[in-house]
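Appendix B. One record, verbatim.
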Amino acid sequence: MSERAGALAALERRVVACRRCPRLVAWREEVARQKRAAFEQERYWGRAVPGFGDPAARVLLLGLAPAAHGGNRTGRVFTGDRSGDFLFAALHRTNFANQPTSRRRGDGLALRDVWITAAVRCAPPANRPTSAERDACLPYAAEEVALLGGVRVVVCLGAFAWDAALRLRARLVGEAQEAPRPRPRFAHGAEWLQEPLSLVGCFHPSQQNTFTGRLTEPMLDAVLIRARALAGLPADAAA
């Protein structure tokens, strides 16, 4: 195991063991006990969910938080829910993933040039984490990006992730303010291009957005292709 891989594995163990936020701990564990009927026979993860992907990633995909019956069940963010179905298909189309679906850890999914994580690592009630819970998780993301070393672009899936990414960048570059003034505003396709970490906005691939057509496959593909270009990645790299 390389030094970087070992450090990322150690960070993963600390994330999984995290119990910093009592409200989130109580909720994720309650969901894991109660379960959804469709997954009654499955053993839920019920813990904080670490990031995953290519340790040589130049693009970071930042979501909101694990879904109660998605990442909180499978132990991998965006895995086992409708948002993930939409996202992984797009990652495959844009040469970041070797396959268009992922249902569980160990199902053969391999990512190239991208690392996927979330602003908050535990499933929150009503899918609404608080600002304090976001800030409690921020050091994990900062350490993650520092260990990855090559991240140049953050694709922010939703306004919450955009706000977290601004704070993350400020922490990484040692800025006194958590966000620049005037504050860059989130929008689908918004860009804030700064060294060493640029931000690209994208609507979250939630069912609320994908079922209503607010986020379409071409829209998501365009954001991911733009992220490849900003990160200096070839458009036709095979995953």
